[in-house]
Amino acid sequence: MSLESSLRENSYPGRGIVVGRSDDGKYAVCAYFIMGRSANSRNRVFVEVPEDNGIETLPFDVKKLEDPSLIIYHPVRVDGPTTIVTNGDQTDTIRNGLDKGFTFEQSLRSRTFEPDAPNFTPRISAVLNVHGGKYDYQMSIIKSEDGTEDRPIHCTYSYGNPLPGEGHFIHTYAHDGNPLPSFAGEPERVKISGDIDDFALVIWDSLNRDNRVSLFVRYIDIETGTAESRIINVNK
After folding, report:
1. What's 200's domain CATH number?
2. Could you give the CA distance from residue 144 to residue 122 in angstroms, rounded to a whole number?
3. How many domains does the chain have?
4. Integer-rounded Cα radius of gyration of the chain
């Protein structure tokens, strides 16, 4: 499906992760975006963390920061040949688990969805493994089965030998609402095309202009492991 159409037809997918392979086959591709309806959620920017080769979310105006617990975190960290992308502090849970020899799935078993009733926002995560000219990735969503605190569902999806020009898209909410309905089904299979700037522009221009906040895109050379990134913030 068209990633552009999927985004344009949904005014509030919330936070989203796209992972796949560039259409020329050379790059592992990932993107992460955040949106916001409240002033607190919109008061954020993505900032690079060079020593970690990742990013963090920071308040744009510290004086306007309300509750930082679910909006300030490291969405992207790099652990050896693995790039970790998530919508919360489970980034660190995954990295710590991988360092202890756990799998991606095992690392997330201790986590549940976010404690933000009545939405119970899902935790979405992905890892990209690029090593020795080979590439695969996994994605995960942890959500409430029936909109309560008692029944978390852990779903993990593994993708080996990704095809050029294809990827998968997972986001926190099916659409806008009150409460917000969680994403349903498997990650959406989407097309990936263009270089890093083209791809970033397609995503950014397709996000709802009233709700978009920040976007991160990274292209990783599958042969060399070198990476190139882009960040776009509404707040400047």
Report:
1. 3.60.20.20
2. 7
3. 1
4. 16
Question: Token digits for 195?
Answer: 């270089």
Taking CA atoms, 226 is separated from 28, 78, 123, in Å, by 10, 12, 28
Q: What is the pTM of this model?
A: 0.97
Q: What SS3 class is residue 51? A: helix
Amino acid at 63: K
Enclosing domain of residue 132: 3-233
User: What is the edge-to-edge ordering of all strands in the sheet holding 123-131?
Assistant: 44-49, 54-59, 76-79, 82-86, 123-131, 134-144, 152-160
Nearest to 83 by CA among 193, 176, 220: 220
Counting Cα atoms < 13 Å in the Cβ hemisphere of 4 gives 9
pLDDT tens profile 32-72: 999 999 999 999 999 999 988 999 999 999 999 998 888 99
Question: Minimal CA–CA distance to 106: which of 122, 90, 129, 117?
Answer: 90
